Input
Amino acid sequence: MGLFDFTISGYTTSHNCIEMNYPYQECINSLLQFCDEVVVVDSGSTDGSIEALQKIARQESRLKVFVEPVDFTHPRWAIMNDGLLKRKAREKCSAQFCWQTDMDEIVPEECIPNIAKLPQLMGDAPLIMLPMVEFWGSFQQIRGDFFTWKLRFSKNDKRIIHGIPKEHKLLDADGNPYVRAYYSDSCNYIWSDTESDIPYVCPLPVSSEQISKMSDSEYDQMFAFCLDQLPHVLHVSWLDMRRKINHYKKFWQKFHQSMYNLNIEDNAQTNVMFDKPWSEVTDTEIEERAKQLVAIGPRSFHHKLDPNVKGRMVPYTRAIPHALKSWAKRTIEPLEKQETKIQVLSSEPLVSAIIPSYNKAEFLRESIGSIIAQDYPNIEILVVNDGSPDNTEQVVSELKRENTHRPITHLLKENGGISDARNFGISRARGEYVVALDGDDIAEPSFVSKAYQGMKGGKANLSCCDVQVFGAENKHWSPNEYDVLGIRYENTIPTLVMYEKALWEKAGGYRVAFPIVEDWDFFLRCSAHSLKLNRIREPLFRYRATDSGLASIFEDKHNEVQSMIMIANADLYPVSEIMWAHEILATQIPDGFRAKFLEHDKKHPEEWLLKFWLGLSEEKLGNFNEALNYYAAAAEFTDYKEWQAVYRIGLIFMRGGKVQEAEKYLTTVRIYRPDMLSVIKSLYDQLEGSHLRA
Output
């Protein structure tokens, strides 16, 4: 059981989400806040969406990605890609209740407590309608008509499907079903046996008749009350009006033709937004129409646009989730300076302190206490309990009761390691900035305020400081200066850092395959995304050294650790250095490393790096068959252009005298890493004149 005393399956569908500029990652992360599982069914994307979704799924076991290819040459492809795909997604849900969300919607964190009320609100009804905040051209205005409500939450009754109600279902000449024009979108909730619409609860505090008589201010107050009381989604499809109009130009006419079996020619009569064919509409005209639509407000576009009809809009003054703002910054240019208009709760931006803990309960009071004691005013604390069997929950609960002025959230998850725990916490953080502090370390009271001052106004996107080591040893560490090339060979950034959450998003988070030195790998990948570092030359970070800790691994085993970093980031290093890294781990990998890899592989069985490192450790032991099995698994779980596992397979075959088998793999390596040609050539040169070559 997850957050509630009932389980929830979130489900959604996907098609070319990257090309469509949908906030698909933000959508999934918002569902993972409260769902016990999230099901995504993709219709056969060709823009990399499937691969991106599968990558997220490898890091998050609750996400399940399926591909159900749609034949887009079929005359009824729109129904297959909409209602039928939602039906297939719902079929794969296993929890007691289902929450349906589209890829252009996210669920704000503030809604989660209200989700717990839904089963009681539904009563015996199988389905409930909930509010939808549909942004219209900006983050400050939303649709204000009744149709901003949507059927959303339902009991997982297997008789409930998505489809066309029987009364609106027609058949074309070939017997394919389609929808009576504009009476449905093929996504109705219907009973599988009768194909009739399913009754639902709409928890409006007033009747439709009362709504029709409300003034604008009364309506705004009523809608705000509903958002306070009921969970809702933020819908962003109409946020970028230019994108939406271009989407209509490229897609919607064909969609309507397929969905409703209409014969729609591209002419002035069928173009709902312009008095000319779409083929003649220019980018400048789209820009002007976008501005006009933002001003006159929302409407349905099943029929011709009448610019004299004003759409009802409601002002939106709530805080916008950081993830949504970050997505908008990346995908919408310009946003008409919305950042200056968005309401903020403090004069300083929110900072989220992420404290992962596995068996650190004895130190947590000091660690969390050091964040509570910060002199920066606006901090939330997220403690990620990484499956600890100790009394972490008791410690966090006591601190929450004792310190009501600092919001403290306790997040519980299965044990996945430090990187997995950090990602888990950061993905749920609301702050614009993140502080990463381990559960046994301490931040001095001025760290956050000084880190922020050094980053304020875009001066930097990551702050760090000097380190005072205490505990099993006592010393001061003043790291060398950071530079974009030097960090490839020396980590000059300590564990305690504060950075923009957007930087974490760009870098792809912490790589969960690393059981050690995950920070170095993360900072190295940040360096590829315009890392600007602010260094505070004061020991504001107190690092706890323990006899059983990992503090000595980096110092004593630099070559081995460097090899891990090189292999994980092979595109940043010359091939000679990658070969050196392979040789180090294949000949002198410490037993302690191998034990950690094996332990971590059980937690993350689809991480190719772990398979690859274990393959090298088997080579050290002379277990070449076992090594081949690990390399084959590594090749299966990685991008097809990742060549290292393929190379090791070819190398083992070559050394075993199986030249023809080796050539197949080594040829692939040459294609994806051309500078490996000299290395592969030297392998063949070594065989010249030998019995292997003969």
